[in-house]
Amino acid sequence: MQLPEQPVAGQPDTTIRRNADQLMAAINEIQTEQPTSYRDETPLPAVGPTPPVQQPGPPPMSQWAIDASGVLKAVSVASLPIGGALWIVGQVEPLTLAVIFGSPAVAALAVARLVAKVKDANQAAPLPVTNHFHGTVHHDERTVTSTTRGVIANTRNQAS
């Protein structure tokens, strides 16, 4: 049975179409009245009167300090489940817990310092190489440039 307020099956509802037309007319009116973007073409000053402001994020520090803090955070997060389990048991002395919590952090610091010292030693200036040749010597000064790209490595060497 078809009620009088219902549209005929397969025909669009007139109220939906009227509301859509009103909405489109309102959008078109807004677009013609107001600009949707603005570009400020005035040049920026090279130096301004505003004092520097601390930026969000980690404070400025050396790369070694950033690496060490990352290692410390990772070790401390890894030791939380162990400490939580020991706290639940409740049969461990506070000094023992301090040793358990502190030893991974101390070990991580020691490893980080060792890695930094090895890295510094590897980056030190290499000693000059002096070669002594006896007899006929052919000196080749070509340079080989190697490029490796792709998931499956494809190396192409170009001699110049």
Task: Describe what you observe in this structure.
The chain has helices spanning 14-33, 63-89, 94-122, and strands at residues 144-149, 154-159. The protein is mostly helical. The protein has a two-stranded antiparallel sheet. Strand 1 (144-149) and strand 2 form a beta hairpin. Helix 2 (63-89) packs antiparallel against helix 3. It is extended. The relative contact order is 0.05.
SSE pattern, N- to C-terminal: HHHEE
Low-confidence stretches: none
Estimate the global geometry from the Cα principal axes.
Answer: extended
Cross-sheet strand order for the largest sheet? 1-2
Largest sheet: 2 strands, antiparallel
| Strand percent estimate | 5-15%
> How much helicity do the residues have?
40-55%
Mean pLDDT: 78
N/C terminus separation = 88 Å
**Integer-rounded radius of gyration:** 36 Å
Question: What class would the helix/strand composition place it in?
Answer: mainly alpha
- The beta-strand count equals 2
- Tally of alpha and pi helices: 3
Question: What is the structure about, briefly put?
Answer:
The protein contains three helices and two strands. The protein has helices at 14-33, 63-89, 94-122, and strands at 144-149, 154-159.
